[in-house]
Amino acid sequence: MAYLIDEQKLEKVYLKSYHTVGRQKLSVDTIIDKPTISRHHAIIELADGKWQIRDVSTNGVWLNDKKLDKNLSYTLAVNDKIDFAVAGENSYVVGDLDTNCRYLISQSIPRQVIEVTDQHVIPNDDEPSFIIYHDKIINYWFIEDLNTNDRQALFDGGIVKALGTQWQYICATEHQSTEIMNNEHNIAPCSLMFNVSQDEENTQLSINVDNKEYDLGTRSHHYLLLLLARHRIEDKENGVELSHQGWQYREHMAKDLGIQMNHMNIMLHRARKQLSDLAEQGAPDLSFLLETYFGKIRLNCQDLSIIKGAHLETRVTF
């Protein structure tokens, strides 16, 4: 597992592949509620097989009592000491830096941690209630209720329900992300049609899968999906390689939308939930249409159409 140890609370802080630290609730992974801490203070990420830290704050980050240069990445090692904002305060020690691990962390107290492996049953082999497995066809991990056969897709940092409580899925591995970036056939077999008003105040979305159309109505989070669709279309038109098309940093998307990061994350959650809920209407779970990769997101679909006002803006197939 990859984690830091909070020296004050003596608690483990499990690291996502792209992990943010700061003061702003709902928009960072680890909250340090101190006035000296910036809303977004630091980024810890797994890149090129190494865990790295980057200072993006006002008051700085110290690594082993040495202040880091802002916006430069520094490689972490086990037992490194990290101080946020003030040297000797808000201190964390690097406990482990595994570069290939997946786990579920219960959101109830006391915390429980389950290491995720393929064909893993919980709570145990004698009384299996859920199974965790890797769907190689679409290259996603799922947790499935063995009693109802309902399944939930696992996304880095996402929340799933099992065994009467909520669990956060943490993916600290480059392997899965590299597969997603390099698999040019990993495109969801469905089509999305956006119908956006001329002033772009209202966005309606419909999805066609297996020759059946689903009307998702007009929702504010559909505009987020529309922007992601436009970015992917633009990349295709500019000749960007298929596996690299459409990826956008969450921070950039929040800026494009003119909203705070926590609001953008809520929109992203609502979009995923609506896509997942389509399973109740007989469609497959389409929550994996929204992919994540080291703090980036993209819309993954093989057929995108955009109608603005009464005119076709574009239609692209991948």
TrEMBL record:
<keyword id="KW-0614">Plasmid</keyword>
<dbReference type="Pfam" id="PF00498">
    <property type="entry name" value="FHA"/>
</dbReference>
<feature type="domain" description="FHA">
    <location>
        <begin position="19"/>
        <end position="68"/>
    </location>
</feature>
<dbReference type="InterPro" id="IPR000253">
    <property type="entry name" value="FHA_dom"/>
</dbReference>
<dbReference type="InterPro" id="IPR008984">
    <property type="entry name" value="SMAD_FHA_dom_sf"/>
</dbReference>
<dbReference type="InterPro" id="IPR050923">
    <property type="entry name" value="Cell_Proc_Reg/RNA_Proc"/>
</dbReference>
<protein>
    <submittedName>
        <fullName>FHA domain-containing protein</fullName>
    </submittedName>
</protein>
